[in-house]
Amino acid sequence: MTTPILEIRNLHARIEDREILKGVNLIIPAGEVHAIMGRNGSGKSTLSYVLAGKDDYEVTEGEILLNGESILEMEPNERAAAGVFLAFQYPIEIPGVATMTFLKAAMNAQRKARGEAELLTPEFMRLVKEAGTQLQVDTAMLKRPLNVGFSGGEKKRAEIMQMALLKPALCVLDETDSGLDIDALQVVSKGVNALRSDSRSMLVITHYQRLLNHIVPDVVHVFSDGRIVESGDKDLALQLEAKGYADFDGAAA
């Protein structure tokens, strides 16, 4: 059996004294897109932060395996070099740092961590131009400070461009549809779909089924009270849209 890109086993995590993840089990094989849906406060975003290695969260039990290797002892930058990418719900602004400069620094930091030579400028520019064409990102946007004054759609496109250039094994999209109008949603979804690959897995976290009209998942999971309580195909998302989450609230007990 092929090793899945992501395997989570009985994951428990807390912040301060509050347990948020209460036994998450999840396997995402290579090439698949899985969606997690759940109401506010169910622990969806916490799962994304724990995968990325955010400091505030303490894992008290369980395992996270990336391509069969545990990442729990890795720092966030080490997880990124190993192939984990987190697209934030609200991408941060970095005044004074051009988007292009940020992209080159991120790519070269990962290459260095993997023992690869740094990209020379001509090769970097070629890769940026290719990704920009694919994602409808023009070079003028890349000269602006990262996310400063960007619209919601521009911020998400810049983030998907990072994903295209870094080529992660696991893409975690935390409510990437937040704050997007329908046109921006379609552009971002098209970019995400262009990055689907037999060697990459994606975890899409969302409240709303509308995103899954554009990024059609292989599997949908329902999250409630810190764990996955139901899994199914894309039709499960339609059921949630029609009925809400009330039917699943008791399932986590």
UniProtKB/TrEMBL annotation:
Gene3D superfamilies: P-loop containing nucleotide triphosphate hydrolases. Residues 6-250 form the ABC transporter domain. Keywords: ATP-binding, Nucleotide-binding. It holds the Pfam family ABC_tran. The keyword Transmembrane helix does not apply. It comes from the Bacteria. PROSITE patterns: ABC_TRANSPORTER_2. GO terms for molecular function: ATP binding; ATP hydrolysis activity. The keyword Glycosyltransferase does not apply. Belongs to the ABC transporter superfamily. Ycf16 family. This is Cysteine desulfurase. It comes from Devosia psychrophila.
